[in-house]
């Protein structure tokens, strides 16, 4: 049984397949149906077409070195480490896929990041997974008026307390070869900075 989530993809497949199917000569498509079909096709194609926002994401393609500070306890000095980030565009320039590698709490760390721009909602979207957990964090956000700072938020569950908390990530475009990423945990309206990462493009 198909779920509702599968309907848009199925519908798009059917819409795109219709023009390739010849209508029987004795049963031509009604004139009133053609405009509706054209509008539907146009809407789906517009939703699927990469635009300026995706071109902005593509500027992050490359190999980067990273320096990270993590605050496990806000009252103590941060743990510092170095790592790498390799980013490439996928699915015809629609998504930026980044693989982060480094050290965390004395262990090898690997995280996979997916970033995109949803033409339908008009917002940036993202997802994050890593080898320090088994969940998927979903994020949504917007770019500020300067075009240099993107703020995204999502929901996570504390493994210890099972309490839902808000995660906030702020990406700052310093220059074409430098970025900074600051992340915060938000609990009861109070923000606590937990990480700061600076990236430098190598190539």
Fold and architecture overview:
- The structure is a single chain.
- With 203 residues, the chain is an alpha+beta fold.
- It folds into two domains: 4-48, no CATH class; 53-201, Calycin beta-barrel core domain (Lipocalin, Beta Barrel).
- 17% of the residues lie in helices and 50% in strands.
- It has helices at residues 7-17, 33-48, 52-58; strands at residues 62-70, 79-90, 95-104, 107-118, 123-130, 137-143, 149-157, 164-175, 178-187, 190-201.
- A ten-stranded antiparallel beta barrel has the order 1-2-3-4-5-6-7-8-9-10.
- The N and C termini lie far apart (47 Å).
- Mean pLDDT is 86; it is low at 1-25.
Describe the structure in brief.
The protein is of the alpha+beta class. The chain has 2 domains: 4-48, no CATH class; 53-201, Calycin beta-barrel core domain (Lipocalin), CATH 2.40.128.
Salient structural properties:
alpha+beta; Lipocalin; ten-stranded antiparallel barrel; 2 domains; 3 helices; disordered N terminus
CATH architecture of the largest domain: Beta Barrel
Give the overall form.
Answer: globular
| Tally of distinct domains | 2
Order of helices and strands: HHHEEEEEEEEEE
Poorly predicted sequence stretches spanning 5 or more consecutive residues: 1-25
* Terminus-to-terminus distance: 47 Å
| Rounded radius of gyration (Å) | 22 Å
CATH superfamily label of the largest domain:
Calycin beta-barrel core domain
Contiguous helical run count: 3
CATH class of the largest domain: Mainly Beta
Secondary-structure-based class equals alpha+beta
Mean pLDDT across residues: 86
Q: How much strand content do the residues show?
A: over 45%
Helix % is: 10-25%
* Main beta-sheet annotation: 10 strands, antiparallel, barrel
- CATH topology of the largest domain: the name is Lipocalin
Strand order of the largest sheet: 1-2-3-4-5-6-7-8-9-10
Number of strands: 10
């Amino acid at each position: 049984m198909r779920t509702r989530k599968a309907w848009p993809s199925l519908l798009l497949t059917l819409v795109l397949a219709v023009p390739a199917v010849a209508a029987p000569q004795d049963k031509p498509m009604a004139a009133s149906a053609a405009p509706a079909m054209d509008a539907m096709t146009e809407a789906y194609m517009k939703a699927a077409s990469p635009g300026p926002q995706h071109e902005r994401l593509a500027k992050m393609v490359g190999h980067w070195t990273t320096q990270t500070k993590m605050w496990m306890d806000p009252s103590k000095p941060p743990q510092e480490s170095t790592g790498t980030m390799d980013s490439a565009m996928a699915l015809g320039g629609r998504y930026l896929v980044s693989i982060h590698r480094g050290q965390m709490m004395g262990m090898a760390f690997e995280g996979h990041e997916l970033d995109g721009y949803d033409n339908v909602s008009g917002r940036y979207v993202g997802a994050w997974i890593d080898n320090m957990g088994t969940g998927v964090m979903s994020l949504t956000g917007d770019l500020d008026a300067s075009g240099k700072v993107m703020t995204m938020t999502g929901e996570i569950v504390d493994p210890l307390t099972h309490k839902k908390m808000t995660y906030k990530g702020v990406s700052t475009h310093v220059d074409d070869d430098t970025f900074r990423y600051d992340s915060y945990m938000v609990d009861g309206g109070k923000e606590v900075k937990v990480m700061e990462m600076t990236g430098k493009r190598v190539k």
